[in-house]
């Protein structure tokens, strides 16, 4: 080993920056490690390589080895250096614990800009490391480094952060001879003491802010601090006034390690390096433990959260679900202050909370309020480490420092808050989102069940209140078994519900003669076909007629259940049967009229015509008129009997065309027709029956409105037969006018004849009613029958000029 002349410095890598930094230094001679011949190594014989390097090192006898980065030397060089106790200086921008040869580091210079300051610090470090005194100190500290290296195994064996903290101060005290030291870990905005060397119970280390004192500076800069005179350091704020010097080393991003002494200059660079070596291991182990703890805690919480989800699932209403949610958030996720806001009526309404007594009493909030509003609008969860530094946050009170916001579907927002800043991390947010995913799923289930309950209630109410007999049933081996009947079923059929429910309905209501019909109905229903048909069914009081409507639960597919509704039409069927019998009798009567009356009338008319051809007797004219009236009477009677209430297929009929057609078939003599119909006037009618209706109205106007048949009415409503007056003069006789016009909902036929007294306006539609000597009394009865057969309503009023006005609402 050289003791005079320039220092022989062996560099790990011949970097240009290192060479240029030390090239013009007369006190330094640089030797490249390639001189050792490691480029010509034999990978199959590592021992031979080590011997070759060792021989070269013996020949060169370097004063120091300079390493410039991780893995800068191969194994052969490291082993040779270790065997000879050659000091090692690290000049690098990497942390010392990143060097594979860190257990052999004697000196450490953090590389800055490679300038003059780096050169000065590096030369000072090389001079110090290679001095005889230092070499002796290094040799003396070899055992200490070895002990520190061995103690690492104890640190690695720590199972919890707390155990690691205590082991750290124990190693620092026992191996590095640091009498007073502590480990402070960051918790939010503070550095909190976690372990203090056992022989200094009254060390005075206290909780402090992360930007406070020497510990705060160390944590903020992530740089070790060596303080020879605490009272001269502006950043130092010692826990005890008796502390005079100290070391402060960052534990990664976790906290700070500090060692203090009551003596000045109690620590040197070597102590700092050893502390950094120790804390480097501690930081790595703590990172691992925390990662494992986070994973384990997260997994535990997820497991418990899934178990807690069972409690959420048990909720039967939104209010109950929200209360259970904040309880789960508190007991499983350790969120002390939680709130659920529901969006309602343009604002947020607090619907559930879990908070201590000192929590803010939050009221209603606008939908655009702070973080809760933004979370609801965007749907994105929010993690807010520092509420007061967040532009979107608008805390209701000043006591909260951090928080989480997660949207609950379209319903609202879940929030968790804490007093201090940085109390939540991404894991907390993930767990909160997992919780709310369970809440959302349960909420949808509650809403679906609520909807089903409401639907079932509505269907049950509808089923019960159907005005007809109703039954629900399910098929059991092709047997329709009753599940439920409504009250009307019990009333109509006479079977109590407790008797028929659970029984085969066909055995109760299907007459034996209709068994085949019921079987066919059941088969169609099971195939998904609905039925609507007339049936006869057995009741407790006998057989009755029903309109049966059977509906399967699912159309066009295989069914096992359905509904049946029975509309009792017994009375209607009886009326129909009676009407058929009446029509048969009426048809028989019409045949008699047509044959037995018309034939004699034809004979009489024929003989009268023969007499009138040979005899000119004015007394024969009344006989002729009587026979004509009898013929009209027979025609009207046949029309009333056979066609008055019969309407064939209806079409859209032009009312003006029908009016002119009907008018052309009526002897109108001195009656005038005025048509005041629009071009678009149409009605849906049987054309022939409409012609019959109009013809009868026109004949009525002719018969009652002509001069010879006109009847005057006194103010008391008594009829006075028109006698021979000036009105009999053809030149002065009054012409009757008939008008056909539109109304708001149909049409009207009006004349200006003598009119109809108000008391007789209903009677005119009765058969046989007539005030004319020539009338049959059937014309207006036929008008009403035809109108009713079309579904029209006919009324008679006074005309605008005193005559009769017939209005038809179609």
From TrEMBL:
Gene Ontology MF terms in the entry: phosphorelay sensor kinase activity
Enzyme class: transferase
The enzyme's E.C. designation: 2.7.13.3
Signal peptide span: none
Residues of the Histidine kinase domain: 592-810
CDD domains noted in UniProt: HATPase, HisKA, PAS
Start-end of Polar residues biased regions: 705-715
Superkingdom, taxonomy of origin: Archaea
Region (Disordered): 705-734
Coiled-coil stretches: none
InterPro entries: GAF, GAF-like_dom_sf, HATPase_C_sf, HATPase_dom, His_kinase_dom, HisK_dim/P_dom, HisK_dim/P_sf, PAS
Key word Phosphoprotein present: yes
Keywords: Kinase, Phosphoprotein, Transferase, Two-component regulatory system
NCBIfam families found in the cross-reference section: sensory_box (TIGR00229)
The protein, known as: histidine kinase
Organism: Halogranum rubrum
Lineage: Archaea, Methanobacteriati, Methanobacteriota, Stenosarchaea group, Halobacteria
């Amino acid at each position: 080993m050289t003791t005079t002349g320039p220092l022989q410095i062996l560099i790990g890598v011949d970097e240009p920056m290192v060479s240029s930094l030390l090239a013009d230094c007369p006190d330094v001679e640089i030797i490249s490690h390639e001189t050792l011949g490691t480029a010509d190594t034999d990978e199959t014989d590592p021992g031979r390589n080590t011997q070759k390097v060792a021989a070269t090192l013996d020949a060169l006898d370097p004063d120091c080895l300079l390493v410039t980065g991780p893995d800068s030397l191969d194994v052969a060089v490291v082993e040779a250096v270790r065997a000879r106790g050659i000091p090692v200086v690290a000049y690098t921008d990497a942390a010392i614990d990143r060097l594979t040869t860190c257990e052999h580091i004697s000196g450490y210079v953090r590389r800055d800009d490679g300038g003059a300051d780096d050169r000065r610090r590096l030369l000072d470090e090389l001079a110090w490391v290679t001095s005889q005194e230092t070499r002796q100190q290094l040799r003396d500290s070899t055992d200490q480094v070895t002990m520190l290296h061995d103690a690492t195994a104890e640190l690695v064996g720590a199972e919890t952060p707390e155990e690691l903290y205590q082991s750290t101060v124990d190693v620092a005290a026992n191996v590095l001879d640091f009498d007073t030291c502590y480990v402070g870990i960051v918790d939010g905005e503070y550095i909190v003491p976690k372990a203090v060397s056992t022989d200094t119970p009254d060390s005075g280390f206290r909780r402090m802010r992360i930007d406070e004192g020497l510990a705060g500076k160390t944590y903020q800069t992530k740089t070790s601090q060596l303080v020879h005179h605490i009272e001269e350091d502006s950043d130092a704020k010692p826990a005890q006034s008796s502390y005079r010097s100290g070391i402060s080393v960052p534990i990664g991003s976790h906290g700070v390690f500090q060692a203090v002494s009551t003596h000045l200059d109690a620590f040197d660079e070597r102590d700092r390096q050893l502390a950094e070596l120790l804390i480097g291991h501690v930081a790595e182990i703590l990172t691992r433990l925390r990662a494992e703890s986070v994973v384990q805690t997260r997994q535990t919480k997820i497991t418990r959260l899934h178990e807690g989800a069972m409690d959420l699932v048990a909720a039967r209403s939104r209010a109950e679900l929200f209360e259970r949610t904040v309880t789960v958030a508190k007991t499983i996720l350790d969120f002390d202050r939680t709130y659920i806001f529901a969006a309602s009526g343009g604002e947020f309404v607090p619907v559930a909370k879990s908070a201590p007594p000192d929590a803010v009493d939050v009221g209603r909030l606008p939908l655009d309020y702070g973080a809760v509003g933004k979370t609801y609008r965007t749907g994105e969860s929010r993690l807010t480490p520092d509420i007061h530094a967040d532009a979107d946050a608008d805390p209701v009170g000043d006591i909260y420092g951090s928080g989480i916001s997660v949207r609950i579907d379209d319903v609202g927002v879940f929030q968790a808050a804490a007093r201090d800043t940085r109390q939540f991390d991404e894991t907390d947010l993930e767990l909160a989102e997992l919780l709310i995913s369970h809440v959302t799923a349960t909420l949808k289930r509650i809403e679906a069940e609520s909807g089903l309950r409401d639907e079932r209630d509505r269907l049950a109410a509808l089923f019960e209140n159907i005005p007809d007999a109703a039954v629900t049933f399910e098929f059991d081996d092709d047997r329709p078994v009753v599940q439920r009947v409504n009250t009307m079923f019990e009333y109509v059929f006479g079977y109590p519900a407790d008797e028929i429910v659970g029984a085969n309905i066909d055995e109760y209501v299907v007459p034996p003669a209709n068994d085949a019909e019921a079987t066919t109905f059941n088969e169609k229903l099971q195939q998904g076909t609905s039925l609507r048909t007339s049936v006869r069914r057995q009741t407790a009081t006998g057989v009755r007629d029903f309109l049966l409507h059977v509906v399967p639960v699912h159309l066009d597919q295989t069914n096992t259940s359905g509904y049946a509704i029975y509309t009792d039409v017994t009375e209607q069927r009886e009326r129909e049967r009676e009407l058929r019998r009446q029509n048969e009798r009426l048809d028989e009567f019409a045949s008699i009229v047509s044959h037995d009356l018309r034939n004699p009338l034809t004979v009489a008319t024929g003989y009268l015509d023969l007499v009138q051809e040979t005899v000119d007797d004015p007394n024969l004219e009344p006989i002729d008129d009587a026979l004509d009236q009898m013929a009209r009477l027979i025609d009207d009677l046949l029309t009333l009997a056979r066609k008055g209430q019969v309407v064939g297929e209806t079409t859209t009929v032009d009312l003006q065309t029908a009016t002119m057609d009907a008018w052309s078939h009526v002897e109108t003599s001195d009656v005038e027709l005025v048509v005041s119909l629009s071009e678009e006037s149409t009605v849906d009618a049987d054309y022939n029956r409409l012609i019959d209706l109009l013809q009868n109205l026109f004949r009525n106007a002719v018969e009652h409105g002509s001069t010879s048949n006109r009847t005057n009415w006194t103010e008391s409503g008594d009829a006075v037969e028109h006698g021979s007056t000036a009105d009999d003069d053809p030149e002065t006789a009054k012409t009757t006018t008939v008008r056909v016009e539109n109304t708001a909902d149909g049409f009207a036929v009006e004349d200006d004849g003598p009119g109809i007294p108000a008391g007789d306006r209903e009677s005119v539609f009765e058969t046989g009613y007539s005030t004319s000597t020539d009338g049959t009394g059937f014309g207006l009865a036929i008008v009403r029958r035809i109108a009713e057969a079309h579904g029209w309503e006919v009324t008679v009023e006074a005309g605008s000029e005193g005559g009769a006005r017939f209005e038809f609402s179609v």
